[in-house]
Design a protein that fits this description.
The chain has twelve helices and 13 strands. It is α/β, with parallel strands linked by helices. Bound molecules: iron/sulfur cluster (SF4).
Length: 335
C-alpha cells in the first residue's frame, strides 16, 4: 500500500512497515544465509523478550556475516541466558521512582511518561527488557499520570518514552500532546524514540506537522548506535524535522561488538551531523539481566572517548555517561 509522499518520492505506509516483522531467530538466520552454529553463543529461539526485527531494518544487515553489528543488536543470543552477578531485571531501580502507574520521576523538574510498551524493534541490550508494562498501562491508560503532572507544578519537562512513543499513531500522539499542552507549567516536551532508526518512514509529513507547534519547541532524542543505521532516507527526514523547529539529539549505547571502536563511533557522529542530529550521550550499558555480553569496561570506554576527542570537534563528541540508581542526574564519566 502506498499512502504517503515525501521529497517527491512515494513511500510505503510506516505502519505497514512496522507490522512487517521477523520474529523467529531461525528465520532471521535463514534470511541472512547464516547457520545458527555460526553465531557466537548460538541463538535463543524461545526468549522471554521475543525477537522483533522489522524487515526494513533487516535490509541493512550484511548477509552471511555472523558478526554484523546491526545483527548483533537484534538477534537473540544464547548468551542472554548467562547468569552474571550484578545484572538484574530492574538495573536502574525504576520501581522506586514510580509515583503512579505510567510515570517515572527520577530527576528534578522532569517526569517520564511510559506511553506504550510496544517497540518497533527489540534491542537485545534494552534496560527495560523485563519492565512490567502491564502494570503501567492497564486500566485508565495515561489518566493517573496526567493527573499527577497536573498536580505537580515543579515539573517543567515531560519525556515521552516507553516502549517507543513513535509506535503510536499520529492521532494518538496528537491527543496526548493536546492533553499535555493544556498543563500550563509544562514548557518542554521531549520524545525518545528508536523507531525512525529502524523505519525512517515513521518521520512522515503528518508527524512533522504535529511536532511543528507554537506551544513548545519539541526535542526528539533518537537512538542510533552505528553509522549504518543512518541512511540517506533517515538523514533527509531528520533534516526536514530540523527545518520545522524540532531539536534533534542522539543517545547511543556503547556495545561490545557493535560500536566499541573509535572509527565506528567517529563515523556515527559524522553521519548524525549530516542528518542535523547532535551526538548527545554515549551511555555505558545498564546492567540488565541478559545483556552482560554487550558490556565494555570503563577503562576501554574512557580510552575510546579520548580517541574520539582527538578526531572530532568537541560538539560532535557525545558525553560518556552512566545512569546509576538513586542519583539525581546521570553520571558523566567524560564530557
Ligand atoms: S526501542 Fe528502546 S525501549 Fe524498545 S527495545 Fe529498543 S532500546 Fe528498548
Amino acid at each position: 500500500m502506498i499512502t504517503q509522499e515525501a521529497d517527491g518520492w512515494q513511500v510505503p505506509d510506516w505502519r505497514r512497515l512496522q507490522a512487517d516483522l521477523v520474529t523467529d531467530a531461525a528465520e532471521l538466520c535463514a534470511l541472512l544465509g547464516l547457520r545458527p552454529e555460526q553465531l557466537p553463543g548460538g541463538i535463543d529461539g524461545d526468549s522471554d523478550f521475543p525477537l522483533r526485527v522489522p524487515r526494513r531494518y533487516l535490509a541493512r544487515i550484511t548477509p552471511g556475516d555472523p558478526h554484523d553489528p546491526l545483527l548483533r543488536q537484534v538477534l537473540a543470543s544464547g548468551r542472554e541466558r548467562d547468569t552474571v552477578p550484578g545484572y538484574g531485571a530492574d538495573p536502574l531501580a525504576e520501581a522506586d521512582h514510580t509515583p503512579v502507574p505510567g510515570l517515572l520521576h527520577k530527576y528534578h523538574g522532569r517526569a517520564l511518561l511510559v506511553v506504550t510498551g510496544a517497540c518497533a524493534v527489540h534491542c537485545r541490550y534494552c534496560f527495560r527488557r523485563h519492565f512490567p508494562y502491564q502494570s503501567h498501562l492497564s486500566g485508565g491508560r495515561w489518566k493517573q499520570a496526567l493527573d499527577w503532572l497536573r498536580a505537580h507544578p515543579d515539573i517543567r519537562e515531560v519525556i515521552l518514552s516507553g516502549g517507543d512513543p513513535l509506535t503510536l499513531s499520529n492521532q494518538r500522539l496528537a491527543g496526548l500532546m493536546d492533553e499535555l499542552a493544556a498543563i500550563p507549567h509544562l514548557d518542554r516536551l521531549r520524545i525518545h524514540s528508536r523507531t525512525p532508526v529502524v523505519i525512517p518512514e515513521r518521520l512522515d509529513d503528518e508527524l512533522r506537522a504535529l511536532l511543528d507547534t507554537p506551544r513548545w519547541r519539541v526535542t526528539l532524542v533518537l537512538h542510533a548506535n552505528h553509522p549504518r543505521e543512518i541512511d540517506a532516507d533517515l538523514a533527509g527526514r531528520c533534516r526536514a524535522l530540523g527545518r520545522a523547529g524540532v531539536t534533534l539529539l542522539n543517545q547511543a549505547v556503547l556495545l561490545a561488538g557493535v560500536n566499541d571502536d573509535a572509527e565506528t563511533l567517529a563515523a556515527l557522529s559524522d553521519r548524525l551531523h549530516d542528518a542535523g542530529v547532535l551526538p548527545y550521550y554515549l551511555h555505558q550499558l545498564d546492567a540488565v539481566a541478559g545483556a552482560a555480553h554487550f558490556a565494555v569496561s570503563d577503562h576501554r570506554a574512557l580510552a575510546l572517548h579520548d580517541a574520539l576527542r582527538a578526531r572530532l570537534p568537541g560538539f560532535l563528541v557525545p558525553r560518556l555517561a552512566r545512569e546509576e540508581p538513586g542519583r539525581h542526574s546521570k553520571t558523566v564519566l567524560k564530557g
